[in-house]
Every structure is written in C-alpha cells, then in structure tokens.
Amino acid sequence: xxxxxxxxxxxxxxxxxxxxxxxxxxxxxxxxxxxxxxxxxxxxxxxxxxxxxxxxxxxxxxxxxxxxxxxxxxxxxxxxxxxxxxxxxxxxxxxxxxxxxxxxxxxxxxxxxxxxxxxxxxxxxxxxxxxxxxxxxxxxxxxxxxxxxxxxxxxxxxxxxxxxxxxxxxxxxxxxxxxxxxxxxxxxxxxxxxxxxxxxxxxxxxxxxxxxxxxxxxxxxxxxxxxxxxxxxxxxxxxxxxxxxxxxxxxxxxxxxxxxxxxxxxxxxxxxxxxxxxxxxxxxxxxxxxxxxxxx
Amino acid sequence: xxxxxxxxxxxxxxxxxxxxxxxxxxxxxxxxxxxxxxxxxxxxxxxxxxxxxxxxxxxxxxxxxxxxxxxxxxxxxxxxxxxxxxxxxxxxxxxxxxxxxxxxxxxxxxxxxxxxxxxxxxxxxxxxxxxxxxxxxxxxxxxxxxxxxxxxxxxxxxxxxxxxxxxxxxxxxxxxxxxxxxxxxxxxxxxxxxxxxxxxxxxxxxxxxxxxxxxxxxxxxxxxxxxxxxxxxxxxxxxxxxxxxxxxxxxxxxxxxxxxxxxxxxxxxxxxxxxxxxxxxxxxxxxxxxxxxxxxxxxxxxxxxxxxxxxxxxxxxxxxxxxxxxxxxxxxxxxxxxxxxx
Lengths: 296, 342
Known about the structure:
By secondary structure, chain A is mainly alpha-helical. Chain A has helices spanning 3-34, 41-55, 61-84, 92-114, 141-163, 165-175, 177-182, 187-213, 220-234, 239-256, 265-279, 288-293, and strands spanning 132-134, 137-139. In chain B, α2 (30-53) runs antiparallel to α12 (293-308) and α3 (61-77) runs parallel beside α6.
C-alpha cells in the first residue's frame, strides 16, 4: 500500500469522524443536563442541512447556513418546551419512547416537505474536482472545512462551558440538578438551552458535511447510531473523548472497505457499539465507578 | 379467573361476529388483513410480556420476526432436486422432512416440509435470542434500547445484503403450510375464512398461555423485577434468569408469528425487519397499556388493520410516531385498560 492512499483513507475517515464526534457531543450535552439520550439527535443534522439547502437559492451560502442553524436551534427549543419541560418525574423508558417518536415525526415531516430527493449544498470553496495537496495526498478543501469547523465548534463549546456563566450553570446542572436548583439556577431553562446547543451544533455539522455526503430526509438514523457509538466509546458525557472516539470510528470505517463489502460498512459501527456495550459500558476512557453512579 | 373466561367468550363472539358481518356486507376481503393483523398481534403479545411485565424495552423484535419468516421461507423454497440422489437427501425424504411440489411452470421442486421450516424458525430465533440476551439484558435503559436497536439493524442489513435472502426483493413463492390434511395456512382465495379462524385460534391459545404465565409465580417475579430489580434480587428472585427466559420467549413468539405470516403471505421482504417495524410493535404495546395483553391485542388489531388497509396513506409511519408520542405524553398507562389487574 502506498503512503498517499493511506493518507487519503485517513482524510476520509477524519471527515466522517468529526461529524460523528459532533453528533456524539450533541448526545452528551443533552445527556449531561437531563440524563436522557435524545434518539432524535441525528434529525438535527438532517434538518440543519436540508434547511440550509432550501434557503440557499435566496441568499448567499454563509447567511443561509447561519439562518439554518438558528432555525434548527429554535426547533430544538420548541421540542424541549413542548414535549419534555412539563413532564413530572419521567421514567427513562417513557423518555426514550418520546424521543424515538419525535425522530420518526421529524423524519416523516422532512419526507413530506423535501421528498426523497438527495440534495447537497455547494462546495464552500471550489467544486467537486478542486483539491489541495497535503503531504502528497489530494484532499478536497471541503474536508478541511469539516475538520476546521468541527474543531472550532469543539473548542468554542469547551470555552463556553469553562468561561461563561451559562456554561457554569449547565455544568452545575450536569453534576447535580437538585443542588443547582438550590443555588438559584433555573435548571429547566438550562435543559432548553442544552437542546438548543445540541440542535445548533448538529445543524452546523450537517451543513459543512452536506457537499461531501449529501443530504436526504432519512440520513438521521445512521448518524444517530454512529454518534451514540462514539459517545459510548468515549464514555457518555465526556466531550473530548467523543472527539477521539469519533476519529477512531471514522478511520476504522474508512479502512474497513478493504476487508468488507461497503454494503456492510454501517454494520461496523453497530458491531463496535455492541462490543463496547457488552464489555466496557463505561467507555474506553471511562471508569466503572463513575458508571455505577449514573442513572440510565 | 372468571373474568378472563368472559373475555375469552367475548373474543370468540367478536371473531365470529366480524366474520359474519364482513360476509354479510360482502367485504370478506377484510379477512385477509385481519388474518395478517392477528399474526402481527402475536409479536405484540410477546412484547407485552417483555416490556409491560418484565420492564425491558426491545427495539429489535422485528429482527426476530424476520429470522422466523426468512428461515421458513428459505427452507421451504430451496430446491433440492439437483441433489436428489445424495444419500442425505434420500434419508431426509424417507423421514418425511422433504416435500415435492410443482412451481408455476410445472417444474418439480423438492424442498423442506414447512413443518421443518417453522420448527427451525422457532428454534433458531430461540437460540439467537438466548445468545444475544445474555449480554444484552445486563444493560439497562438507553443502553438496552440501543443494543436491541443495533441487533435489529444488523438483521436488516444482513437480509438486505445477502443473496440467499433475496436482498431487496425478499423471498416469494413460499408454499402454504399444511398443519394437517385439510387445514393449511396459505393465501389462497378459498381458504380465506379458514385462515382467519386459524389465526384467531392461534392468538387465542397464545393469549391463554400467556395469561396463565402472568398469573403464576413467573408473572409475579416479572412484576417484581419491573418494580425494582434490586428488590427482586434481594427477595431471592433470579432476575437475570427470568429476564432472559422472557426475552427468549418473546423472541420465539415473534419468530413463530413471522414464519406463519410468511406462509400466509407466500413471501417475505426485508421491510419486515426494518427498525420502523420494531418501533411500531413498541408503539402498539405502549398504546395498549404496556402490561395489558387484551389492551395490546385490541390496539394491535385496530392499528394494524387500518395500516394494512392503507387508511394512513403515506403517513403510515408518522401515525405510529404520533401514537407513540401522544400516548407517552398524556397516557403513559395506555388508553385501553380492559382486563388489567392491579
């Protein structure tokens, strides 16, 4: 195998890996403030890219993306306010089922609005055939966009949680919701904020990756499963580990084409998911003690 | 127990009543969809036991349904004619395991007796559920949901990507299943009524068995596990063992239903194993009141029948999504509470 090709596979793996990481971080944000896994997470990615594609004919690319992200954030907020905020002491089973129902409804709504057509945003710079040379490998500039935007998003989130008042409040809710409430933090608003944040980053990821992977109404489910795999791989609730997990999964998937027919590519993530769940449910970087404290 | 006899009598009256009514109205073609609904309802009944009583969610039961359907479909359509002279085939034939039939063009096909297909389906699903269940049932909540979902997707991918299973086309021309001479499960016009009664009788027997199970030591143990697994463990209930047995039982029921429906429909497609199907079963169980066999059955019959008749149009999936959300938001105990014991 030559080195260029190796690098090519790594670049493809990184592209997908970062998207999985963003979806995983979306899972983590909501999980940390509410303790629930939002099965509709992949739908945010789909909505973001589909809305941006619909807006693009009317405005330049970047305003369209910004507007799409804002709209998706609003959808996230509405979802939380309409379906979760007012439920008293919900059971996990009930929550899981509601998010599954929501993901179906969003998908069906998208099917009704946009149809089954596969769409895509244009390349941010250049077009399908433009490429830049890195270490001898030809890489589409869009790959750099994906890697760049996703890295900036992750760093910005870190900064948000470390340095801003809302970030502290959300972290306080993640550690102990009741104690946070006693300190005067409006925990319910933090939950809404977490839905908005996770919808927003999902939508952004959907936009940057759309030129490469294309967008379709049903792209959410596989993304959600892979994002969840990555979230588990890194340990639920752990942001930076999710990035590492995403890159690992992306690269494994991209190299798997050598040994397996590409029709089975999706099964790899699920296989990894099952193995991790069975043997190390705390994640590769998580500890057993920490896991025992968490409620599912 | 007296109340459940009344329920059974009502059930029988309803079955006969619906048959006579559709006959009188000249709409006996409704019986086909009702028969299919009965088979789907079997999966729901198994899931009621798993979700409602043992409190374990499964988003992969369409996978077991498909394992059942595809096993019997493959075995009863495989053509063994070229190997007819091999000793092993001759042995199988002499034991009555094989069946000779003619296809549409009059060519002779030697394949397994549907009895073998159905038995294999049930056994295979049981073994798979057992092997999957040991690690999966250690998980709780989200992890359990995701792991079963993952299992379902793997079944779907395998079915879709493997030539033996007909890939996207599925398997067609599956022969009928002759239970004994004069009584067979098939999709022919003149046996429509008989099939309707066969399916309703199978569901009734299943209901009766499950009701007895629920009102036994096992049922009480399951409800204890649902209440609190730790507490159940503390009073000496083998929680892992019970959960596993219920999981295997519900999988076996799903596979049996899948096998029978495949013989009734004369084929099976990959859609039967899709995630949406699994979610649909969960939606029905939730709408039926989780821990209610009668509620689950009634909801399943109504929703499946309406869906199969195409009343929901292209919003079929959306209807089930909406049912899920509305039930969970406003009536997590379910809308139908007949036959519910406190």
